[in-house]
Task: structure prediction
Amino acid sequence: MKTLLTGALKALLGSAVGPVRSKVELPDLAGLGSPPVFSLSPSHELTSTLREKGYTHVHSFAAIPSQTMPRWLLPTGDSCALLAGAHIYQPYKWTARVIKSALIGMMKMGWYGWWDSPVLVASRGTSSVEALVRAVTGEDDPLFALSLGRQAAVRKLTIQVMRRSGDILGYMKLPLTDAAAERVRKEAGVLDRLWNFPAIRPHIPRILYAGKWNGTYVLFQSALEGERGPVGFNEMHQQLLKTLRNVHWAEMPGQALTGKLAAKWQKAVRHLGGEWEGLGQEVLRRSTRDLYGKVLRCGVMHGDFAPWNTRVRNNTLLLFDWESADWDAPISWDVFHFQVQTSHLLSKHKGLKASPAPERSDETLFMLYVLSSVCGFLEEENQSGISHHKKLLIGQLQGRRAPSVGPASMV
Result:
């Protein structure tokens, strides 16, 4: 949708004039205070006219896969920057990886004719985003690659900030909705709190800047360099989760967890339909019974512990995207999430096995995890996630076993 692309570019530039299609449409920019402009159909004539008017800070992009369905904006005009910009997309599905590999091959050969979705942004002087980058990193001439999130309700513009050489300086998160702004603020708070613990610092991004910017809230964090994280749960994942538990853990009565989720569920279920009401009531009933008198070990939960939020460097797992974190959640929930996500989205069933005789409390914690996840999907308006978790919950209530989670959740 071009409306999405237009909104993202206006958020990037602040008060911008656009979209502009030709020099005839250019207003008296000097009279307007020479604001930034952008065009979704830039011609050489328009670009030349802008330069004549003093718009010397020009960034050209290609909208991928198209302007009507934008997911990424990659910088054009420089093969090194273009290849570096492609780093913002790290697919895990086989088909997407093949397509990206083919596109990169075309880039390396210098053929860009398959792109017919050019985008141009220009400013007379340093734009506000360039000024922020300069103030934080000292870089005077940054390049950008942009990613637009999938879920409209919590959509953010993620900006990969680079040098002309292709070196990645960091990532900005710029919210495009009020709900997204709350998530960006939350992630900044979590990262700031985690940075107080030296043991976790090697695994997480460092905040370069977090605060108000152009009427919203922006988070600028360091890049986590490394290879794509593995799709199978292994020792690196276990070690990182152990480090998180050492950062903070606490004992929580089973009744307290059930009550906490019941209050959250009561607000959510009214938006989910009649069948969900019965499912939720049954899960909470079983939880009240199975967790009565038991104490749960809780700690820091990442909240979206999945391969696409990880990198590996020197046999160490790095973890980013902390906007769904919880400081006091059952220690098994991140493991549950990893299995559910890889099984559903990547069709992976290795690395975590169903235990031959799981404890009833493990099954109960799994069902509570599913309810909690549905509350998050509801905020995102993620109907696919809600539908899949409904199937999971029905299967669990019908007697299918919950996965083994390794470290015990009970104290």
